[in-house]
Write a structure and sequence with these properties.
Blueprint (H helix, E strand, L loop, with lengths): L1 H21 L2 H56 L3 H73 L4 H17 L1
Helix pairs in contact: 2-3
């Protein structure tokens, strides 16, 4: 079993090495840039969603605070009128709202942490993307320079028929001697 596993690994490694040598670095870099752009776009959409949630919680907390103020006014009226049954139901509602406010506060803290972390990651990823784009630019510019140099060099090279005939005679002579 171990022998088969080792042979399989060797075969896979050789196949991967061949594929790596066939693939163009520029194509791989372009693909990496596209993937990084997609990843950043996804993170930006997630950040917008988190910020929307954060704003929603802040707005609901403000409304909750107003309702709690209104509860206080109603409690004052109940105690002035000595209506303890009604005061109990308002106190119950006030306690429920307090608990809900606490839960919303915890959600807000969690969202703040997520937003901070995502913002930090986005900043780092954008810097990485910029670095990758610069490498891509250098690689593409370098290949353009190489291709233009090769074309210029090839344009300067002229092989005439006499050179071909002499080279042919030399090759024949080499083959006869061996």
């Amino acid at each position: 079993m171990a022998l088969i596993t080792r042979i399989t690994r060797l075969f896979k490694a050789d196949v991967h090495a061949i594929i790596d040598s066939i693939e163009e670095p520029a194509s791989l870099l372009k693909q990496s840039v596209r993937e990084m752009e997609d990843f950043i776009a996804k993170d930006e959409r997630q950040l917008v969603s988190l910020v929307d949630q954060q704003q929603g919680i802040k707005k609901s907390t403000e409304e909750l605070n107003k309702l709690m103020e209104h509860d206080e006014e109603e409690l004052d009226l109940c105690f002035e009128d000595k209506n303890e049954d009604l005061a109990r139901s308002i106190i119950k509602r006030k306690l429920e709202r307090k608990q809900y406010k606490k839960i919303q506060g915890n959600k807000l803290i969690s969202l703040d942490e997520k937003i901070d972390e995502l913002t930090k990651n986005l900043t780092e990823n954008k810097l990485s993307l910029e670095s990758m784009r610069q490498k891509e630019e250098i690689l593409i510019d370098g290949s353009k320079v190489f291709n233009s140099d090769a074309q210029t060099l090839m344009a300067d090279i002229h092989v005439n028929q006499d050179d071909i005939d002499v080279a042919m005679l030399r090759e024949r002579k080499k083959r006869r001697q061996s």
